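Supplementary Methods. Inverse-folding protocol.

Structures were first reduced to a C-alpha cell string of length 254. This string, shown here, constituted the complete conditioning input.
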C-alpha cells in the first residue's frame, strides 16, 4: 500500500485529525448582520464569527472569513467547493442544497410592524392579508412564507432595504429573527421599542452550510469539533458573551 493512499485513508478514519495540508483553504462567507456577524475595526466580528474561528482552530483547517451581500454569498455557496455559508437557517426547502454543521444557535421568527401604525395581527392568515410584507429574497422566511401561500411578499435585496421600507411606511410588515432585530433596526435609526411583534411563527436553528461539493470528511470533522465545544462549555461561553438571553442549541451527533 503506497504512503499517499495510506495517508488518505487515515484522514477518512480519524476524521477529527486536521488534514489541512491536503485540503483547499475554505472561503467562509457571511453577511453584515450584528450581533451575528459584522465588521469591527476592519475585522470580522460577532457571535457566529467567533464560533467559526473556534472551529477553524479545533479542526486545523485554513479558512478566510468574508462579509458580502447575502444573495451573492448564497449563490456562491451552491456553486463552488470548500465554501461555508454562515449563519444559515436550516429548512426543508434548503436541505439538499448544502452539507450542514450545527446548530450553533436558535432563535424565533416573528412579524413586526411600526408601533405607530397600531396594527393588530394575531394569525398567519391576517399577516397574509395585511398588505405588502418586505423580505430579502434569499432569506429562509421568503421561501417558507411563499410555500405557505403568502402572495403579499415584497422581495428586497437585503435587511437594510427591508427596514428602510418599514420605516417610511412603504410596507406594513417585515419578518425577522429576535436575535438580529435590534441590529437590523439600528441601521435605519430605529429601536426595538419602535416596533410591535406579531405571531411568532418559526423556531429557527442556525447552521454553517457547506457547499455540496465540499468533502464529507471535512464536514464531519467540523461537526465533531462543534460537539467538543458543547461538551467543554466553550460554545456556551461564546453564546453568553454575545447573546446572553438565547438558549443553548441542541446537540446533534456527527
Amino acid at each position: 500500500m503506497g504512503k499517499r493512499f495510506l495517508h488518505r485513508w487515515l484522514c477518512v478514519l480519524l476524521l477529527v485529525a486536521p488534514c489541512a495540508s491536503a485540503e483547499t483553504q475554505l472561503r467562509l462567507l457571511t453577511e453584515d448582520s450584528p450581533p451575528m456577524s459584522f465588521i469591527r475595526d476592519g475585522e470580522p466580528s460577532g457571535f457566529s464569527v467567533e464560533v467559526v474561528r473556534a472551529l477553524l482552530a479545533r479542526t486545523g483547517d485554513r479558512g478566510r472569513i468574508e462579509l458580502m451581500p447575502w444573495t451573492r454569498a448564497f449563490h456562491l455557496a451552491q456553486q463552488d467547493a470548500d465554501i461555508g455559508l454562515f449563519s444559515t437557517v436550516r429548512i426543508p426547502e434548503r436541505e439538499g442544497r448544502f452539507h450542514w454543521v450545527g446548530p450553533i444557535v436558535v432563535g424565533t421568527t416573528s412579524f413586526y410592524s411600526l408601533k405607530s401604525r397600531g396594527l393588530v395581527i394575531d394569525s398567519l392568515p391576517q399577516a397574509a392579508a395585511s398588505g405588502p410584507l418586505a423580505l430579502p429574497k434569499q432569506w429562509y422566511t421568503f421561501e417558507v412564507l411563499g410555500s405557505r401561500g403568502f402572495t403579499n411578499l415584497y422581495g428586497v435585496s437585503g435587511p437594510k432595504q427591508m427596514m428602510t421600507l418599514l420605516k417610511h411606511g412603504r410596507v406594513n410588515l417585515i419578518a425577522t429573527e429576535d436575535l438580529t432585530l435590534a441590529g437590523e433596526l439600528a441601521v435605519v435609526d430605529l429601536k426595538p421599542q419602535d416596533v410591535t411583534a406579531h405571531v411568532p411563527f418559526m423556531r429557527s436553528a442556525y447552521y454553517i452550510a457547506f457547499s455540496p461539493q465540499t468533502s464529507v470528511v471535512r464536514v464531519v470533522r467540523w461537526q465533531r469539533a462543534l460537539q467538543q465545544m458543547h461538551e467543554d462549555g466553550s460554545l456556551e461561553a461564546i453564546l453568553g458573551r454575545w447573546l446572553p438571553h438565547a438558549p443553548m442549541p441542541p446537540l446533534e451527533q456527527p
